[in-house]
């Protein structure tokens, strides 16, 4: 099984990103976005970069400053999206389903002996399907082993910092700050990668990842 990225028309991309195509063209002419090599169509990666640009610009960054963060933000949102079943087409799910092995009878018997056994069996099957999809996506798109960040913070001094789930605590997130530190002496911009991924998935006309043609 091999996966590939779905493509979207400019009008579909505009609906998802809420960025007018005229603005996209201006950003591209100014060097803030890379040239589109797909004859006017966009992949989810392109869409996420535009989403990131719009989010950053709407918080007061110039397009030039936003472009310095947009690719990394888009990559982080993409990594989060890989863990949602909504990111995958029905064809991709069907192909993955064919690779899900049968649950051993011993485990089935043990589950069915308890109330809600059918639901637990379904949860195990869904988890196995998700793990196959995620592993195939990570392999197909060259992101295997990359950590998935939970938050992006742009501090008041302009420095950026990604936070991962294991990093978030009272000592390492906002609980251990000093008012004299220049990174908090001014507005701090906070982005939740999971929330942004959820927003994009809600808006997509088709799942972002499909079974590769000929696979």
What do these coordinates show?
The chain is mainly alpha-helical. It has one domain. Helix content is 47%, strand content 10%. The protein is built from eight helices and seven strands; from the N terminus they run ββααβαααααβββαβ. A three-stranded antiparallel sheet has the order 5-4-6. Helix 5 crosses helix 7. The longest helix is centred in the middle third of the chain and has 24 residues. The chain starts with a strand and ends with a strand. The mean pLDDT is 84.
TL;DR?
This protein is mostly helical and 215 residues long. The protein has helices spanning 10-17, 21-29, 44-58, 63-81, 90-97, 105-112, 117-140, 193-203, and strands spanning 3-5, 7-8, 42-43, 151-154, 160-163, 189-192, 209-211.
List the helices and strands and how they pair.
Layout: E1 3-5, E2 7-8, H1 10-17, H2 21-29, E3 42-43, H3 44-58, H4 63-81, H5 90-97, H6 105-112, H7 117-140, E4 151-154, E5 160-163, E6 189-192, H8 193-203, E7 209-211
Antiparallel strand pairs: 1-7, 2-3, 4-5, 4-6
Helix pairs in contact: 3-4, 4-8, 5-7, 6-7
Outline the biggest β-sheet. Answer: 3 strands, antiparallel
Strand content: 5-15%
Kindly report the average pLDDT value.
84
Helix percentage range: 40-55%
Counting DSSP H or I runs of 4 or more residues, the number of helices is: 8
How far is the first residue's CA from the last residue's CA? 6 Å
Strand order of the largest sheet: 5-4-6
- Radius of gyration using CA atoms only: 20 Å
- In N-to-C order, the SSE pattern is EEHHEHHHHHEEEHE
> Which runs of at least 5 residues are low in confidence (pLDDT < 50)?
none
User: How many domain modules?
Assistant: 1
Total strands: 7
